[in-house]
Amino acid sequence: MYRAFDDRALEPFGLSAAEHSAQLTGQPDESAFNKVEEYELRFQDVPIDNLPPIDVLSCTTTMEVGIDIGALSGVALRNVPPHVANYQQRAGRAGRRGRSIASVITYAHGTSHDSHFFDHPEQIISGEVRAPVVYVENQQVLERHIHAYLVQRFFHERVPPDPTSYDLFGSLGSVEQFLSDAHPCSLLKLESWLDQNSELLRTELAGWVPSFSFGLNEPVLEVGATLLGAIDRTKARIRAVLPVSEYAAREELADLERESLERRLEEPLLETLIGHAVFPRYAFPTDVVTFWVSKARQPGDAPGKRAFDYEPQRDLQLALTEYAPGRSLTIDKWRFESAALYSPYEPTPAHTIARQRPYTSCRDCSWATMDTAMAQSILCPVCGSDQLTRTAFITPAGFAPDLNAKREVDRGQAISYAGMTDRARLEPQDPPSAWTESCDGRLLKWMGSRRLVMVNKGVGQRGFRVCPDCGRSEPEYGPGFTATKLMKNGAATTHQHPLEKGVVCPGVADGPFYLGHEFPTDALLLRLRVSAPVRLGAAGATGLLTRASRMALSSLVEALGLAASRVLQIDEGELSGWWTPVMGGRTDEAQLYLYDLLPGGAGYARAVGNDLLRVLDATEVLLAGCDCPSSCYRCIRHYGNNWIHASLDRHLALALLRHLRTGDLPILSEGDKTNALTALRQLLALRGIACEDGAVLAGSRVPLIIELPNSRLCVDVHHPLIDPLAQESAVVASARSQFFEAVSLDAFDLVHDLPATVARLKLPS
Predict the structure, then answer these.
(1) Given Cys at both, which of 31, 257, 544, 696 links 347, Cβ 3.0 to 4.6 Å?
(2) What distance in Å separates the CA atoms of residue 279 and residue 693, rounded to the nearest whole number?
(3) Are the C-beta atoms of residues 427 and 369 closer than 8 Å to each other?
(4) 8 Å CB contact between 382 and 477
């Protein structure tokens, strides 16, 4: 970098840049370094294999790549950090070594988060740091600690005195050692030891397992059941993640099945138990999958071995979109396209396909269920629609590109997409516990653990085809995807094996399937009840709820999540949510839910419920504090909800929120009515139909009077959340008192569905 500031540097020169991220921390190569370690050394001008030095490393905000930054006197932040603690940590890197003055420059982008703190910088610079909270009620996390404690007790008691026979200081040995009964610390010996010492171990567990939540100031009721079955669940959980039956039939396996087993047996036992969430895994997702970039087999390679260039991992919720077959991604400057479902721990995707789950959903109202019995339903149990889809989903164990495809350097090409993962769906049913009412019964809440499911439905919601023999996968053929390799003229065809050079696979593709993921987490359920004349649904509305109500609910969910992240001082990506109609076909109720994106729950949804009034206050401030006509990045838009930007309207959400909190009826100002009628006026002018604005009739200002051949039609505009039949407007009443025709039009339809609105007026052609 010195050359860039040298006055003698008159000629242009290039800088060598490299990526420094977790997706490159795979297995070491022949030089005993993984990619990240190699790039760190080259960045420090350490010669490796005659490779040139690296001038610039693109790294995350928390990595310092072994460089001494004690003398740093200035920091430039390219965006506003998530919260006060993040700002203090990053800004505090300057001025550490005896510097009396340090400079920090923060660039604010045009997002809701950055705009807020640009307007209120004192909140991010010197605001109060929220005290960290440990969520001891999470029984899933507790069970992982119990598993770790029981296995630790066994190894401490049974470890042999000779460390050379069984290395336990860095790990618990390998999976193969643990499954072999020849070793002193094996699976069978662990199970026998747990059974023999079950009473003593339960007593020890009861001595340290949290039974009271000081955060909620109440006992943790589920602890008794957790302790009662702790021994049996530990044994079952360990057996479920280890290849016990495959190891017993080891000599009978061949080819891919033997290759898969050998790789699993080589894994360190500790790493396997952590990776499968048997043991706690702090600060990382527990449900992760890998994008396996294979190396081509070389002459002399062992038949049961496979090497990989890259092994990036993503949380499964993100991988369903970012690694989906047909999606492109960049790793270490190389551009890859996902082409297969693959994991070295499973010989073929046949096992994945065999674990498919039913998924029934309604296109009209967003209802979804995994209940097998409901898959036979003819009509949606919520809205009565016959627009039900029944497509099984599979949970991928991993993904891979086509080994035969030529690698290309990423030169900024557009990303190819293969569908987007939906928001997690929650079955619209009452939880077993009672609701807590507030706001005179208009708002009810419930907090607890729920199971949710999220799916990627592929291009055009048609799903994905998967070959059970080789794993090649692709979106279902149709509009938006025509480059099929698995089908020809509507029938399955032979295709190139994606993981072997020059091999043709005769397998018949199965499916189509959705790619899905079911997970338990903490959820906050909010039941919304509106009072007449406010309405959420109408008899003729598709999917029970009106389009305006759906927009209001979608916008309110987004605003609640953003406001909660500010109140709790957590990242915006820690919470998500959605809405559902209410079972039973009610048009005056709907249900919102917020959930923790961390499987098992991090306690954030519960924290929102416990501090709901503050979150609602912050939500109202967020919705009312912008001047945009519907939504923008300064209020409720952000990257994570870009697929519904056109369906976000802060005004509708604010009107609904204020009605729920205070009972106030949504109203439109005269300016709102005038703006809503703009397109209608222009259409009337094109047809040569005369109209009059703002005439006063019987003491009421009429927004628009249309001059018809034999009569005059008085037009009023009502709020989209108001039922005009339940509350007649003053304009309509005044017009009818003068024996004029009158109609009240929906402000939402005037803007979003003008043809249907004009049809109601029955204007002359």
Answers:
(1) 257
(2) 71
(3) yes
(4) no
Distance of CA 48 to the CA centre of its chain: 40
Q: Which residues contact 625 (CB under 8 A, 6 or more apart)?
A: 635
Mean pLDDT by 10 residues, the chain (765 residues): 56 75 61 72 79 78 58 78 82 72 83 79 84 73 90 83 47 83 87 93 92 77 87 92 88 77 82 80 68 82 74 86 91 90 86 88 82 79 83 92 90 78 68 77 86 88 92 91 88 91 91 88 89 83 82 94 86 83 79 82 82 93 91 84 86 95 92 92 90 86 88 90 88 87 91 89 77
CA angle, 552 as apex, 547 and 556 as ends, to 5°?
A: 150
Residue 715's DSSP bridge partners are 704, 743
CB atoms within 10 A of CB 84: 18
Phi and psi angles of residue 66, each rounded to the nearest 5 degrees, phi first: 75, 15
Residue 589, beta-bridge partner list: 529
Q: 529 in helix, strand or coil?
A: strand
**Residues in the chain, overall count:** 765
DSSP string, 678-708: HHHHHHHHHHT--EEEEEEETTEEEEEEEE-
Do 713 and 703 form a contact (C-beta atoms < 8 A)? no
Q: Pairing state of beta strands 510-529 and 443-456?
A: antiparallel
Structure tokens at 78: 């390219």
Assigned token pair, 247: 């190891």
In the three-class reduction of DSSP (H, G, I as helix; E, B as strand; rest coil), residue 204 is classed as helix
Q: How far is CA 530 from its chain centroid?
A: 30
Q: What is the spatial distance between Cα 217 and Cα 53, in angstroms, rounded to a whole number? A: 57
Closest C-alpha among 359, 358, 365, 390 to residue 380: 365
